[in-house]
Description:
Elements: E1 2-6, E2 13-17, E3 27-28, H1 33-36, E4 40-44, E5 48-52, E6 57-60, E7 68-72, E8 78-82, E9 89-93, E10 110-111
Parallel strand pairs: 3-10
Antiparallel strand pairs: 1-2, 2-5, 4-9, 6-7, 7-8, 8-9
Amino acid sequence: MTHKASCHCGAVELEVELCQTLESARRCDCSFCRRRGAATVSAPLDALKVVKGQEQLTLYTWGTGTAQHWFCSVCGIYTHHKRRSDPTKYGVNLGTLEGVNPSELGVQPWSDGVNHPSDRQD
């Protein structure tokens, strides 16, 4: 099923085909995500299309540079990110999906982003 997604001001619009159900949404407790607070759902890289506002998207990355987070430069809403845990997928902000109210899906479980496997020095 294809979903439409947008930032708050409407400058950025996406079409995305999720690889999981909405009920699979999760939150992450890494230093960045816990401040952002958005629950996300997954989509393959080739299943997300920016249909409006590519020029309005701002990229934020840090550390290894694997995770790439995009935001609307007008209203500041985080729309999606390339996952560090699986760089073949995007995490899409559940709250940007048209017709979806995250509070109606119940409590989203948390992923342990603080202890990311890529950070282990085994």
